[in-house]
Structures are given as C-alpha cells and as structure tokens.
Design goal:
The chain folds into two domains: 62 residues, Arc Repressor Mutant, subunit A; 277 residues, Rossmann fold. It contains 14 helices and 18 strands. An eight-stranded mixed beta sheet has the order 3-4-16-15-10-7-8-9. Strand 8, helix 7 and strand 9 form a beta-alpha-beta unit. Helix 2 crosses helix 3 and helix 6 runs parallel beside helix 7. The longest helix is centred in the middle third of the chain and has 19 residues.
Length: 355
C-alpha cells in the first residue's frame, strides 16, 4: 500500500504490486514449521529474519499453493455439544461428530456404512493428540476401532495391545489383528496381537488357549494399558461384537437379565451394572476389573439404536471419554425429548417426541 493525497486534499491508499515471493525460502520455512514443528522464533533465528516475515512467508506458502492444507476428518465436530457432553457426564474427553449432510436445505441422515469410518477418524485424531511416549495403547476389534487404525497417521512410540480375540477363521489376515499392527506402525512401536478366537466353545478350551505363550504374552500386557479405545455395542443384531456369535437362547437369556450394552464382550444392564454371564469364562478379552484400571478409556458408538447402550456404559463409570454422533449426544443430554419404546419389527428403537 502507498499513501497519496488527491486534488481535494483527501487521503487515499494506492495498491502497490506485491514483491515476488521467494518460493524456495517460503518452502524451507513451511517445511520446518509444518513438518519439523519448529517455532516461528526458532525459524526466524535460523534464517536471520524476523518472526513477522516468517508469518508472512507461511501465509504466502498457502496462498501460492506451496503448502496445501487438507481437513481429513470427513465430518464436522460439534464443539458445543462435545463440551456439554463432557460436562454432563464428567468426561475428560468428548467428541461429537455431525453425521448429517445437507440435501436441498434439508438435513438427511448419513449413510450408516460411513458411521464407523467417521467416528474412527475422529477418534484417531483424539488418540493422536493425547497419546504420549511409552504409553501402552489398547484396541478392541470393533468396526469403529478398525476405522481408527486406518485413519491414524502419527503416534508417539508406544506399544499397541489387542484387547479381544478375533471373529474370523483366518487369524493371519483378521481385521482386528491388522488394526493393531497398523496402529503400532504409525508410532514405530511394538504390536501385541491376539491370535485366538474371541469366543470359545467352552471354558476349558479358553483356559488352554490363555496359557499358550504367544497369547499369554499379550494377555500379560492388559495390566499395563494406559489408554484404550473400545466400541460400545447395543444388545441387538449387528450392533454388538458378540451378540451375533451367540445362539438365540443365550441371547434371550441375557436379554431377560436386562442386557442393554456390551463392551469387549462384557454385558451391562440399563443402569450400567455388569451382568454375570457364561461368556466371561469362555471368551478371550480384557476383564472388567482391568478395564476399570485403565487411566484413559475412550468409548466409540454412534448411529441408530445405540443411545441407550452408550448411556448405560457411561453410567457404569468405565469411560473417561466418548466419541459419538450428534443425534446420540442429544438423546444423552436431553432424554426427556425422546421416548424409548419397545422394539418391534415396525417400531423404531428411539423416537423423538419434542424438539
């Protein structure tokens, strides 16, 4: 800008063509700031320029497409709802993802196939922010946690421990095992997978497998886990990591006991109390006592039919954090606006009664 006075004595500013950008210098500064995580003061000292020039070079690097900034979280985070949820339930961390999109001015529900991916991506950012060097990170085999492993790009060096057995027959390529390995690779740490089925036919078989050296090595890491991410399941078809693997009489027996939610195979009633089941003896997973000892336990759940389950697990006192969607968060914060109805083939699990 250049100051001038016109014929009437009025002051005006005249545009002056900006100086050509030093692309090499801008790129060098941007590399140190964005990739090397150096401060503007340190960069200024290294190049013998002012920190204000560093700031201008960073702006120019973006303006001239030397640096491209991508927002990798595919859905918007609702900050006010996140804060309200954390305060209401006494959580250290709460992330509420907006899983709706605008279509012709009307907000429509997101494709349910994308829910796990979006929650997992948001959880990947959260765990990247809170993980520290020498943490021991625990992951279960739920779909949102598998999505987390695909989205995480950076972690401090830490061990990653699988918290549950697997569902598939091919242990070498099972998604849960791949998720643990992928996440460990992001931080250059060691992976501790569980090469064993999640649910065994009987307790003796489970006991034998637990004693196998490779499996025992992972199980012995459970007590060292400092941060863990687990899916929250509802007690219904496709909404739980164990429900679909059980015979119908066993499912209904637990439902009659009040089964409402499930975390790494452990079943909780609507009040958040643990239900003692036969599963405890014949599944390979972290126990509830070990879960309670984890300093940071983050639960992931979203989409239709999970609000009641999330509330039950929150009431259990297990969680220090949660990643969920806006609809579930609103149902948790304002339950008087929603009516829980008996579920039938023609009746939705939760219906809105007021806004």
């Amino acid at each position: 800008m250049r100051s001038q006075w016109n014929d009437t004595g009025e002051h005006r500013e005249e545009e002056v063509p900006s100086a050509p950008i030093d692309r090499l210098l801008a790129a060098s500064v941007a590399r140190r700031f964005y990739l090397g995580h150096q401060s503007k003061v340190d960069i200024a000292r290294e190049f013998n320029i002012s920190r204000f020039k560093v700031a201008r070079l960073l702006e120019a690097a973006v303006a001239h497409n030397i640096v491209r900034i991508d927002i990798t979280v595919p859905a918007e985070i609702d900050v006010p709802l996140s804060q309200a949820l954390a305060e209401s339930f006494g959580l250290r961390h709460a992330v509420v993802v907006n899983l709706t999109r605008s279509e012709g001015g009307v907000m429509a529900s997101a494709d349910t196939r994308q829910v796990s991916r979006w929650l997992g991506t948001a959880a990947a950012q959260l765990i990247s922010d809170i993980a520290e060097e020498r943490d021991v990170l625990g992951l279960d085999g739920s779909p949102p946690v598998q999505a987390l492993s695909e989205a995480v790009t950076r972690l401090p060096s830490c061990e990653v421990v699988q918290l549950t057995g697997v569902h598939g027959q091919d242990l070498a390529t099972d998604p849960a095992i791949a998720a643990v390995r992928r996440t460990a690779k992001a931080g250059g740490g060691r992976a501790f997978p569980l090469y064993t089925p999640f649910i065994l036919p009987d307790a003796p078989t489970a006991a034998i497998l637990r004693s196998q050296p490779a499996i025992a090595e992972t199980l012995n890491r459970f007590g060292r886990v400092t941060k863990a991410v687990v899916g929250i399941g509802a007690w219904d078809a496709t909404l739980s990591t164990v429900y679909d693997d059980l015979p119908e009489p066993e499912r209904e027996r637990y439902r009659a006991l009040g089964a409402c939610a499930e975390v790494v195979g452990h079943v909780f009633d609507q009040a958040g109390d643990l239900i003692t089941t036969e599963l405890n003896a014949r599944m390979i997973s972290m126990g509830t006592a070990e879960l309670r000892d984890v300093p940071e336990l983050i639960g992931l759940a979203g989409g239709a039919g999970r609000a009641e389950a999330v509330r039950a697990v929150l009431d259990s006192g297990l969680l220090t954090g949660v990643v969920t969607d806006t609809t579930t968060a609103r149902r948790l914060l304002w339950p008087d606006r929603w009516e829980i109805t008996p579920r039938t083939a023609d009746t939705p699990y939760v219906t809105e009664t007021s806004v």
